[in-house]
Amino acid sequence: MTDEENPAPRRRMVRPPTKGTAAGRGMGTKMKTADDKSMSSQQWIKRQLADPWSDRARAEGWRSRAAFKLMEIDDRFGLIRPGSRVIDLGAAPGGWVQVALKRGAQAVVGVDLLMIEPIPGAELVQADFTHPGVDGQLIEALGGEPDVVLSDMAHNTIGHRQTDHLKIVALIEIAAEFALRTLKPGGHFVTKNFQGGDAGGVLAELRAGFREVKYVKPASSRKDSSEVYLVAMGRHRDGAA
To answer: Catalytic residue at 192?
Structure first.
């Protein structure tokens, strides 16, 4: 039965960010002085300036330090192969898109609520991919079913632990549903999670839908961050286990 004949309820993405740009999440923009920032922003600026991964990203031309996270995951598991088709959810500012292209992907489509500066060889869409029709637009731009679905999506935390946790889980659920619905058999899925964060029923769905599921904390993740990644490999054919 097709999705059109039996449509599943579609989740809407959390509210789009109201401040900042895709470039502002990268490494190449001029930052305001600390005098113009809140204390938390000043601390973020200090971390960025003292971070060797950020320095390396600037030196090597990557749009964000997150590029090293995907490179480490791909080095370990070999997810992106020459000729792969890749969709990157929450792609701004484009570091993971750059890595996918560098690793030989045939087609890469990135989507984000924020505008992403053009990257030669990639199709970049500014949209909420959970809106009706956007998923089809991504598949059409890709030229077929994806071999890899990536999600480094994050949300603007509000400091309320329970609320922030629910937002984290919601993003994982959205990305996992998209991956399970669109990946070709044998395909792979990577999504951000956080240590101690219960991914609800998503982990069980991924274990049922993929050959293997691993938790990974890349060396380039900040040591004081609880950030980890769920890596689901080998999408089963429908009905297979």
So the answer is: yes
Q: Please report the beta strands in 113-182, taking only residues with DSSP state E, as ranges in sequence order.
A: 122-126, 148-151
Is the CATH number of domain 63-235 3.30.70.3270? no
Catalytic site residue from 192, 214, 217, 223: 192
Sequence spans of domains, the chain? 63-235
Query: In the numeric block, which tokens belong to residue 212?
Result: 């293997």
How many CB atoms sit inside 10 A of residue 55's CB? 14
Report the alpha-carbon distance of residue 60 to residue 140 in Å, rounded: 32
**Which residue in the block uniquely carries the two structure tokens 């029709």?**
133
Q: Does the model's pTM come out above 0.85?
A: no
Query: Between vectors from CA 100 to CA 73 and to CA 21, what angle results, nearest 5°?
Result: 100
Helix/strand/coil for 171: helix
Rounded average pLDDT per 10-residue block, the chain, 241 residues:
46 43 43 48 53 81 93 97 97 97 98 96 92 92 97 72 73 92 97 71 93 92 78 85 54
